[in-house]
Structures are given as structure tokens and as C-alpha cells.
Amino acid sequence: MTVAAGPRRRKNISAIEEEGARQDLSSPPPLRGRSPAEASAKAGGRGVSSKVAQVSTPLPNPTPAQVGLARLAHDKSKPGQARVSRGREQVEQAASPNIDSQALLAWYDRHARVLPWRARKGQRQEPYRVWLSEIMLQQTTVKTVGPYYAKFLAQWPTVTALAAAKLDDVLRAWAGLGYYARARNLHACAVAVVERHGGVFPDTLDGLRDLPGIGDYTASAVAAIAFDADAVPVDGNVERVVTRLFAIEEALPAAKPRIKELALSLLPPSRSGDFAQAMMDLGATICTPKKPACSLCPWNDVCLARERGDQETFPRKAPKREGKLRRGAAFVVLRADGHILLRTRPDKGLLAKMTEVPGSAWTHDFQLKDAEAAAPLDAAWRRLPGTVTHVFTHFPLELTVFAAEVPRATKAPEGARWVKLAEAHAEALPTVMRKVLAHALE
């Protein structure tokens, strides 16, 4: 996820950048956000060429042949056109005319989603709630996040309360939400806000980025939504909207800087927070990955991909490298008095500090015949039919599960502990371990 940010101001000129975004080729009214050159210049020109040509008169509407991509000769950029790097060649893209950000805001005023972390109309956004929801929503759906958000808010209603919590309690509350580094960073960030800022979130992009676990996207989202700062958070929904609107042929992730730049160019003079949420809502409810409802879109008459009829093919994506399969063994031990053997993973690495059943290392060359050598104690182990599969970000995992029952007097091996089976659900068990327990106990 990427971020675009820049101060709020407008110029009455068109601009052409060497590496910039497409420009308006239409007659008045002009693009009603900001030109990419202006937006980038106002943001300090990061990653954008400073060479700018000014055009004093508007150009005629683009013809269909101008829409999309055309080879660009090696001479200087023509007025009203922008050059985009495409490996060994450069191509030009004609801008979609008259992209009215106010039309999107008007649509948002009528159709905004009602979400638990959004303030009602006329109310101020609470930075803590915005931040908490944005951390949870990374790589996770709104439907999944809802119950977790409510649970966290009930248990820790303020950033000060969260900072005072034990990390183990935070991990337990997070269990099942995935991407567990987020939970550790969430707690570290809350502590930093209390210790460095007296429990008040900073209201600048730089101040937010300086906090643990907050990158460009989250800083931009909190700055825009909570403080109405000039920022455009670019998540997957926004990437889809922008790549279709401008028919960006460059594939992700290489296209991210250009998408960021174009998203910023659409930023209206006011209501940055509403604009950010409107872009997200448009992508989530109208400009969906499959079968987008283009007839209901406030920008359907200026969307280049819709005009071409290939909107579902955007954004372009580079082929994904699939991680190599890893295998391992998991050992579920039940004691006669209704306890289960669990242990805590190391402080660093994948699923750090989370709870698991004992098991072998997860490797590419795991051999089933060697599995019982990793067993936590001597017992009459039986191999359960089938396997447990799980996909992490970088690799898929396949676990063979072994089960055993042991006498009540059995002591836990070093590094493990007995936990009442009825209370195991309260442990910080990641999803893969919950799958293992379900497989063994069903």
C-alpha cells in the first residue's frame, strides 16, 4: 500500500512532467483536483522530475486514438501529454478529461458505508479509533475486522489503556486475525504515543511515520481521516480505482509510485478525510475486482478503462512468485485431567511470541519418517488421517498431526506448559494452530 501526500492548493496551469501523470486534454472545465505535477511539487517533488512546461490555452478533447497508450518519440513531451517509463521505451497517456473530485464527494455523502470506526456526520474522527481500525484492516476484510475491533475497543477504549496492557493479553485478543507482527507493533505504538506524546497522536505525517508499526499508508490514512490533512492513502481499493480511471498499463507493484501521484492529483481543496474514505468506498462497493457497477459510478463518463471496455483487467499485475511448500509435524497431547500441552514461540521470527502445540521445524525437505524424533515427550503417538494446510504470505504449509493421551502425573517438558483444554481458546493461538486443534479434536 502506498501513500500520496501534499499541501492543499491549486494552480490555474497545466503541467507536464518527464515522469509525471497524465494531464487534462479537454476544453474547460479543467481537472477539478490537482495536476500531478502541482501535487508532487507541493509535496516536495519527491520522486518526480522538476522539469515542467506550462500551457496557456486548453487543447481539444482527445480522440479515441489518443486514449490509452501510444509510442512516444524521443523528442520533448508535447503539451497536454505526459511521459511514463516503460522499460526501454516511453509511452504517452492522454488524461481522462474533467475528473471532478466533488462528484465523488457528492456520491460519498449519499452512499458512505456505515462502519463502526467512522464518526457520524458532524462528529469528529477519533485518531485512536482510526489508527486501530487501519492497522486491523491491513490485509484483512471489513467483515473479519468488525468483531475484533469491537472487542479491542471494549477492552482498551483509549490508547493509554492499550499502552498499559500486557503484550500477551494483546496477542490473545488478536489471535485469529493474522499477520501477528501487527499486534506487537500495535502495542509498541500505543506505548510510544503515551511516552513520547502524552497519549495524543501526532497530527503530522512525519510525526505519525515516526511511530512503531506506522508506514506511509497508515500515516496517510490517520492524517487524512483523523486530522483532515492533505494526504491520500492508497490501498488496494484505491489502486483499482486509479488504474481503471487512467488505464494505467504498467503492472503492480512497479506502478505504485505513479498511482500514488495520480491519486494525489485528484485531491480536492478541502475534505481530505472524506475524499480518502470515498475512494476506499468506491473501490469496495462499485469499482470491484469483478463485475464493477460502472453505471453507478460518479466517474463513469471519464473512466478510460470503462470507455475501452476492459476495466476488469485493471490493475495490471506482475506474475506472482509462489513460495515453495514447507512441511512439518504437529503434536497434540491431552492429559487425563483435561489439559493440553502448549508452548510459546520464540520472540523473533514468524508468529513471534504466539502460542502453539509442540512440533517440528517447517522445512522444504521434511521427511515423515523423522517426525516422531521431534515429539515433545514419550507417548503412544498415532498419526491422524489427512493434513492441515495453511498459506502464509511467502509460503504454503502442510502439517501432519500426531495425537496422544498421557497420564495425569505427566510433567510438561522444558519450554512447554499444561493448559486447561476448556481455556485454550483464550491463548494467543494463530490460525494455523487453531486448525491443528480442530483437526485433532473434532
The 3D shape can be described as globular
H/E series: EEHEEEEHHHHHHHHEHHHHEEEEEEEH
> If helices are DSSP runs of H or I spanning 4 or more residues, what is the number of helices?
14
- Count of all domains: 3
The average pLDDT is 82
Q: Which CATH-level-2 architecture of the largest domain?
A: Orthogonal Bundle
Main β-sheet: number of strands, strand sense, barrel status? 4 strands, mixed
Instruction: Enumerate the spans where pLDDT stays under 50 for 5 or more consecutive residues.
Output: 1-32, 35-97
Oligomer: single chain
Number of strands: 14
**CATH topology name of the largest domain:** Endonuclease III, domain 1
What structural class should be given to the helix and strand makeup? alpha+beta
What share of residues are in beta strands? 15-25%
Q: Could you estimate the helical fraction of the residues in percent?
A: 25-40%
| CATH level-four homologous superfamily name of the largest domain | Hypothetical protein, domain 2
- How widely separated are the two ends? 39 Å
Return the CATH class of the largest domain. Answer: Mainly Alpha
Task: Report the C-alpha radius of gyration, rounded.
Answer: 26 Å
Name some characteristics of this structure.
442 residues; alpha+beta; Endonuclease III, domain 1; Nucleoside Triphosphate Pyrophosphohydrolase; four-stranded mixed beta sheet; 14 helices; 14 strands; 32% helix; globular; disordered N terminus; DNA repair; Endonuclease-III-like_CS2; metal ion binding
